[in-house]
Amino acid sequence: xxxxxxxxxxxxxxxxxxxxxxxxxxxxxxxxxxxxxxxxxxxxxxxxxxxxxxxxxxxxxxxxxxxxxxxxxxxxxxxxxxxxxxxxxxxxxxxxxxxxxxxxxxxxxxxxxxxxxxxxxxxxxxxxxxxxxxxxxxxxxxxxxxxxxxxxxxxxxxxxxxxxxxxxxxxxxxxxxxxxxxxxxxxxxxxxxxxxxxxxxxxxxxxxxxxxxxxxxxxxxxxxxxxxxxxxxxxxxxxxxxxxxxxxxxxxxxxxxxxxxxxxxxxxxxxxxxxxxxxxxxxxxxxxxxxxxxxxxxxxxxxxxxxxxxxxxxxxxxxxxxxxxxxxxxxx
Length: 332
Prior knowledge:
This protein is an alpha/beta fold.
């Protein structure tokens, strides 16, 4: 076939139960079969996930252009997305997680928008959060004007999930923009790096993805040291992006550091206090926040990690109660 408009890349790991639903929603996008391809990248699933997809291919019950790639080494979600990008043929790349789905007809609307607005490196869209209790539309109050990525990150809301964006494939390839592989958290730094490098980016109020929230996500990390440490490392990669452009583009660097500071502070408030003292101190020393910062807590934690770890440890018994009271007040 001629090159499609969209390459839909799906990293999968033990996700066989979601495959049929995802493929079916991709088929309900109002696109002709030659306008999209589906690329599933199986990241060494130990179950029958690959067999579920292969069965659809063998029995010809897939969309016409479905590809299954099987990793021989586990590279986590970022590595799987990189593999998909390397073989993609579409003009634009769409990322979606294995347990998410598309809103009916959304990609046809995005196609029409792209055709009417040529030269866009990135198109940002809305999404829905779905869990067992409710469906919440995430609608962004962004400008509809096309602008440079540096201006966009300085002036607009920037969601941290790559499935909130449609990327021009040649833009990603030409700038060697890829995900960090073999890490737990790889999405936010990819989004920020690609945004600031875009020559032209635009927001369009189309709900594209229905995102499933479940108990294994970052909001439920508990006191798992390795996961918390990796989340701080992602914040560190955002810091590095800002530091790399600090001299040449201080305004954009300031916006990037704003994302870094927000994530670093949230990590302290939500996760770090839960850890044993030695683990707190190790993270504070290895993953310091960028300073100067207007936030006193961040500045103190970066300049005096030992003292800050001692304070967190001393306050640890009462912090769950304080957090519980805060959440109750916030809900009112």
